[in-house]
Sequence to fold (389 residues):
Amino acid sequence: MVKESLSLPIPRHWLSRSIWLVLCSSLLTLSNGCTNPSAANANSSLQSNQLENQISAGVSGLQAIVVRDFADQVVVPTYEQLVVKAGLLSATVEALVKNPNQQTLQAAQQSWIVARSPWEQSEAFAFGPADSLGYDGDLDDWPVNETDVKAVLESNDQLTLEYVQNLQTTQKGFHTIELLLFGADNNRSVTDFSPRKLEYLKFLAEAFNQSANDLLTSWVKGVNGNPPYRQVLATAGDIENRAYPTVNAGVEEIVQGMLGCLDEVANEKIGEPLETKETEGLESRFSHTSLEDFKNNLLSAKNAYLGEVPEAGTSGKSLSNYVAQLNPELDQQVRREMQRAIEAIAAIPTPIETKINQPDAQVKMEAAQQAVLKLHSTIEQEVLPLVQG
Fold:
């Protein structure tokens, strides 16, 4: 494969200096009597326009590479990790069903936590097929409808993979599996499993694994007659691209995805439990891993901004490169605020599910919320307008 190189455009702050040099050159030429004033002015104007065109073409070229690399180096690798870990979850649940004991239960519980990480790190790009084809809801709707889950367990309906796939999204996916594996109070014992509960759990894990695979397929191959969404995003600005008619639209999609993720973390995942002082608002309360969700959501925004997935060893040209090209100070500000938000979340006492009513925990949660909101504000008020041009 030929490695594509990028010739970066001339920074904007060089423009006035370059024009000044052109004018000085023109004046020097005039003093030597080699040309006339009108010719000098025309030459200066032409060179200035050429320089502006170089800058515009360079920025546009960088935008196109940012969008392409975002699809290839961030989205697809994250979903590939999800597929691997969803397969492991399905396998460990299968082992639990076949041989229920404390060891197989703990293995399935750990697999659930491990699978959670790449999914939460995908929240900053929950657009495209995750949204339009319903994979987001199938995999991660919350809160769980515990009453309806209980109704499935108590019914005489025959449990099959197709039956579970057709359930409401609040009766399947991550959090129904979590409820069955960990129990409502994170105190599940292997003796709590009835044959029907194990059967339900088995098909839940299989359905989850299928949805994860379908989501990846929708990006790399396409499903239901749709083109691969990787191709749709990577070709932003092409004349036939109705989803992203301009390259700017593709870059803006990345920014909007980050904003949506940060807003949810600050105002829902942290904000609602902080206001009510109740654990019911914590997304992964059954497993006591809600703080891991917060952290991974911030890492999702960070990966989207930096154009990388460290766990997968991938990286490319990024939104950070684009912002730095136009406003280096803003890029550094975003990086600082992102790190502060991550550190503020790490300072919250864990597990927050058992400490939410402690004064120190509430102070740390509020500080984390404000840090995430500050980052959200900077991206919304400064990065987004820069991208929109």
Observations:
- Residues 162 and 207 are 8 Å apart (CA to CA).
- Residues 77-234 form a domain with the A middle domain of Talin 1 fold (CATH 1.20.1420.20).
